[in-house]
Amino acid sequence: MKKVFSIVAIALMAMSVAFAQENNNRDENGNIVRGPYLTNEFGDNWFISLGAGANTLFSTPDVKWGFGGLAVEANLGKWFTPSVGARIGYRGIDNSFKVKSGYTTMIDNGTGDWDAMHYAHADLLWNISNALSGYKETRFWDVIPYATAGWLGFKSPYYKVLNGDDREVEDEWTVGAGILNKFRLSDRVGLYVDLSILSTRHEVLAISPRATVNHIFAFVPAATAGIYFNLGRTNWDRYSSVAPKPVVLPFTEADYKALQSKVNSLEADKKGLMDELEAAKNFKPEPVVIKTEGKKQVVLFFDLAKDTLNANEMAHLKAFASKLKPDTKLTVTGSADSGTGNETINTRLATNRANLVVDVLTKQFGIPRENITVEHMFDLFGNNPQSRAALVE
């Protein structure tokens, strides 16, 4: 078991050194930049690797250790994200050992003390460097723990027991774990060091159960190194939400002056309206005497800055219009008082007031438009609020 602890210690040391490397994968605030990342195409981010190394084997106190043997391997894999990938592979393993108890002796065609194993496997890879430190294409050292499972078999061996029976060694399903260390040389090529340990039932060694009551597993530690090649696309794109750029319209000095002039005009209008409102609040109405000289006429009064009639004035207009004959000739004069507002505003108000009356006469009472003369003026009854009116005669 000391060898297992040694392998684990070496793996943990490799991981700590890898995380200490400078990766510069941070934003302006010093935070690690991670995904999300765009999904790659089927042909992207594949890799193959070829390597060799050494391994040993142990199962029970009855097994005499040898140095181990050569382990050669080949793998094919793909990264699905910068952190998650998978691979399939083959490892050919030689081991040298003997059984001390006498229950079993491993032999290969009579040579007596070595055998060859085969391991076909599938692995699930987790690039912990990308997962914890963020993806960086140019990182030199990546640490990748993985879980492995597969089939462990022997190359046509057999064994002998003391009673003389010959039996073939059984093959076994195997699970294990490892740490893959990748060292980038370029976009396409790099080196790797792979430390792993497999676990399988001790029957794969043809050890008699009578000799191993308390030892049901055999272990195969291995260390390999080699070269890998990246296929297809070799990098990843980080997803980013692109906001539309604001449209900046040119704004010249002439535009600014025109806008300022308009603001000043609106301010003046506002001041005029405020003055009118204040004057209206303080105004005390006086009787207005209108000399009609026997003509049929009506005077309609409007509120300050309004070109619509209230309900009372509209009733006056309708009462007047209901007594008219269809061929009556009329003159409608709209008026505004010059004491409030300005010439532009007052002209518009006087015209709109006259047009409102014409619309009622033509649309509601059938007076032909050609029978109506429309005029507008200021101060129909002098410079006072009574001049906010329309005269129909």
Broad shape? rod-shaped
The rounded distance between the terminal residues' Cα atoms is 121 Å
CATH class division of the largest domain: Mainly Beta
**Radius of gyration, whole Å:** 51 Å
Q: CATH topology of the largest domain, what is it called?
A: Porin
| Low-confidence spans | 17-23, 99-114, 156-165, 208-214
Strands of the widest sheet, in order across it, are 1-3-4-7-8-11-12-13
CATH architecture descriptor text of the largest domain: Beta Barrel
Write the H/E string, N to C.
Answer: HEEEEEEEHEEEEEEHEHEHEE
Indicate the mean pLDDT: 77
Summed up, the helix count is: 5
- Give the amount of beta strand, in percent: 25-35%
Structural class determined from secondary elements? alpha+beta
Please explain how this structure is put together.
With 393 residues, this protein is an alpha+beta fold. The chain folds into two domains: 2-231, Porin, CATH 2.40.160; 275-392, 60s Ribosomal Protein L30, Chain: A (2-Layer Sandwich). It is 23% helix and 35% strand. The strands form four sheets. An eight-stranded antiparallel β-barrel has the order 1-3-4-7-8-11-12-13. Strands 14-17-15-16 form a four-stranded mixed sheet. Strands 6-9-10 form a three-stranded antiparallel sheet, with no helix packed on it. Strand 9 and strand 10 (166-168) form a beta hairpin. The longest helix is centred in the C-terminal third of the chain and has 30 residues, at 253-282. It is rod-shaped and about 130 Å long. The model is unreliable at 17-23, 99-114, 156-165 and 208-214 (pLDDT under 50).
